């Protein structure tokens, strides 16, 4: 709140400035804008085909947010192209050619054009037409072309001037771009908008078609390169398969693996058959006695040779059956040979092996059959195992082929994908190149009506802006102003208490006797008197030894006036007061009032207390020499003299030099327990002053506080 109050007082101080400057600004603005010509706006509209899906040759597959961002980017690109200097320069050339060649120009010819000779004028027109035809900008490094640019600028047809009145924007979320231009002529506005639209569409069409052509040519070459690369990969794969007799690795490996499983399963079956039949033979042999087994083996030896041939044929046929991968066509032949073999065994057993042991004849038959079956199983086991080894070797040979073929097929797949992707882009680019451009001028600009006048708005804005600017300047002054404007600010800055404040008096000469004796005082003098009474009251409570030292940081802060008035204030309370002027550098009190004695004479012992009469207010001056208190007498002598003065006077007020002469000021602190500082209002506490405020704060109880002096009257009402 304190800051607000201070700022309010500052505004009140500059209230006339806040009124006069805006009024003057309004008057000046009025005279400046009263002759402004009317403004005419013309508008054209271009359809882009970006949002209109019926005109799109490709459709976005991204999300809605990505699509919106892409659409906004496309519109931004189109708008920036339209604002390009290259495009606006084309409009500038058209305008200047029109005004130089037509009977009714849009603007009056400038002095630069009027100064041209007929030959120079023809050369200028020819150059502008050449630049327009080639879509070239002016080379400002060429002096001759700088002159052409100056001609454009003199007519306000240069790109910077035109761009200042041009507005290009997208109409909401629509598919249209609006082009607006305002000028002093409706025909001029329409001419600029229409020419800008046509120049933009022509330039953009040429740019897009050129890019599409370059892209199509590049993609066509890339398609051929990718097709050749793909064909090379396919040839490599085909040659490798032919060279290594690989038809279909996956099918071949599947067949081999299936055969391996079949042979592995058949081996397991054969081994189980061998085990079971061996066990059965052992069981049959166990049922015969040794004599019967001997007879049986001798008899079998005679008949075994007859069966061998049939068994050999059966073995060969079984080998073919195994090698063929167990084809069913061999099973019938094997069954036929087995039937023949069984018949031979039956005939031989009936003829040779029969003996009286008829009961065991069936066991003999079973033994012969089991022997034959066991031999067949043993033969087939070795053959199946060899065939299985052969299949495993064949399967192992397919593994490196599989890795190589997979690598080649992967290369073919990558090359095919690249080729198809480039081919798709090539087809898309070719199709777009064959289509017409999507940009169309759907609304031609027409001369418009005059716009509402902005003169009054400009006048009002000038007043508001000048008023706000004045407020801003005053606020900046307030913000950078660190001056002490109230006791509270002084207390915050010095981090110590403030005893009171004294208002400034406007009178150049102040009669203290009149202030303290008269009753018909004006308001300022009455307030001055009351503030000093308040300070006197506070000091009465704070003083410990009847003495008070009054100092200030710098000279001229009013400590002399404060000391005199405090002496008068205590004198009015029927106290006997002694005012000591110890300001050796500026003995203003001594020069104003004839003192009864000088402190040099008193403290050196040249005079005693007898010089003081019975007057309630006595003044002790100084000779004004460059000296200090302790140079006049010893500390013990000064202390004794001060005790005598305390026994005579009720209050002793001592004005010292400023704290910039710290040694002279602080010597009095050896003989007094109270010191107050006088600070002039509207002054800053700089870093150099901060050391003195810190010193006073370091005195502790000796320092009683500050007296804010010369406080302006306008600040007092807010204190």
UniProtKB/TrEMBL annotation:
SUPFAM superfamilies tied to this protein: P-loop containing nucleoside triphosphate hydrolases
Entry keywords, A to Z: Membrane, Transmembrane, Transmembrane helix
Record keyword Transmembrane helix present: yes
InterPro entries: Bact_polysacc_biosynth/exp, P-loop_NTPase
Top-level division of the source organism's lineage: Bacteria
Bilayer-spanning residue ranges: 14-33, 456-480
PANTHER family named in the record: FERRIC ENTEROBACTIN TRANSPORT PROTEIN FEPE, TYROSINE-PROTEIN KINASE
Protein name: Exopolysaccharide transport family protein
Species this protein is from: Pseudopedobacter beijingensis
């Amino acid at each position: 709140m304190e800051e607000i109050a201070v700022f309010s007082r500052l505004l009140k101080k500059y209230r006339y400035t806040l009124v006069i400057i805006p009024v003057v600004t309004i008057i000046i603005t009025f005279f400046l804008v009263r002759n402004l010509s009317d403004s005419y706006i013309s508008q054209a509209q271009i359809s882009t085909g970006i949002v209109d899906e019926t005109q799109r040759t490709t459709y976005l597959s991204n999300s809605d947010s990505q699509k919106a961002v892409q659409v906004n980017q496309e519109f931004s690109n189109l708008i920036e192209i339209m604002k390009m200097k290259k495009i606006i320069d084309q409009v500038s050339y058209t305008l200047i050619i029109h005004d130089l060649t037509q009977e009714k120009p849009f603007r009056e010819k400038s002095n630069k054009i009027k100064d041209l000779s007929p030959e120079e004028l023809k050369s200028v027109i020819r150059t502008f037409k050449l630049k327009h035809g080639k879509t070239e900008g002016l080379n400002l490094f060429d002096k001759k072309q700088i002159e052409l640019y100056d001609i454009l600028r003199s007519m306000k047809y240069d790109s910077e001037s035109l761009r200042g009145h041009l507005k290009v924007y997208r109409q909401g979320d629509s598919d249209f771009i609006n082009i607006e231009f305002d000028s002093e002529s409706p025909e001029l506005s329409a001419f600029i908008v229409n020419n800008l639209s046509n120049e933009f569409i022509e330039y953009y069409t040429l740019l897009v078609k050129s890019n599409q052509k370059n892209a199509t040519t590049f993609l066509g070459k890339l398609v051929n390169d990718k097709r050749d690369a793909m064909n090379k990969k396919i040839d490599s794969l085909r040659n490798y398969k032919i060279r290594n007799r690989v038809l279909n690795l996956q099918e071949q490996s599947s067949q081999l693996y299936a055969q391996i499983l079949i042979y592995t399963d058949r081996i397991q079956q054969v081994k189980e058959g061998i085990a079971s039949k061996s066990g059965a033979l052992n069981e049959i042999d166990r049922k015969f006695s040794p004599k019967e087994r001997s007879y049986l083996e001798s008899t079998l030896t005679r008949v075994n040779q007859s069966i061998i041939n049939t068994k050999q044929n059966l073995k060969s046929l079984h080998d073919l059956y195994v090698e063929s991968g167990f084809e069913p066509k061999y099973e019938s032949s094997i069954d036929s040979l087995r039937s023949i073999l069984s018949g031979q065994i039956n005939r031989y057993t009936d003829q040779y092996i029969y003996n009286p042991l008829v009961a065991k004849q069936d066991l003999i038959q079973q033994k012969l059959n089991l022997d034959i079956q066991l031999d067949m199983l043993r033969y087939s086991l070795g053959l199946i195992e060899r065939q299985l080894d052969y299949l495993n070797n064949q399967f192992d040979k397919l593994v490196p082929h599989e890795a190589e073929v997979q690598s080649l097929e992967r290369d073919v797949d990558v090359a095919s994908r690249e080729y198809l992707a480039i081919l798709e882009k090539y087809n898309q680019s070719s199709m777009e190149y064959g289509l017409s451009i999507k940009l169309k001028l759907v609304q031609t600009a027409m001369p418009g009506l005059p716009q509402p006048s902005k003169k009054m708005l400009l006048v009002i804005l000038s007043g508001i802006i000048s008023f706000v600017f004045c407020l801003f300047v005053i606020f900046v002054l307030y913000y950078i102003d660190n001056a002490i404007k109230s006791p509270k600010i002084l207390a915050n800055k010095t981090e110590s208490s403030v005893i009171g404040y004294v208002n400034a008096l406007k009178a150049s000469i102040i009669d203290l006797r009149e202030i303290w004796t008269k009753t018909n005082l004006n308001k300022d003098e009455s307030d001055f008197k009351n503030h000093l009474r308040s300070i006197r009251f506070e000091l009465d409570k704070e003083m410990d030894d009847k003495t008070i030292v009054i100092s200030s940081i710098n000279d001229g802060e009013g400590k002399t006036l404060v000391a005199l008035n405090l002496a008068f204030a205590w004198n009015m309370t029927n106290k006997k007061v002694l005012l000591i002027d110890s300001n050796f550098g500026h003995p203003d009190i001594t020069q104003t009032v004839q003192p009864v004695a000088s402190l040099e004479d008193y403290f050196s012992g040249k005079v005693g207390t007898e010089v003081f009469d019975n007057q309630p207010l006595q003044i002790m001056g100084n000779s004004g020499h460059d000296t200090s208190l302790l140079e006049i007498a010893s500390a013990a002598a000064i202390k004794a003299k001060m005790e005598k003065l305390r026994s005579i006077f009720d209050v002793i007020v001592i004005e010292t030099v400023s704290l910039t002469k710290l040694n002279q000021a602080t010597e009095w602190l050896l003989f007094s327990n109270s010191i107050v500082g006088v600070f002039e209002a509207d002054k800053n506490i700089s870093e150099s002053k901060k050391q003195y405020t810190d010193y006073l704060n370091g005195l502790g109880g000796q320092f009683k506080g500050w007296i804010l002096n010369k406080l302006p009257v306008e600040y007092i009402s807010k204190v």
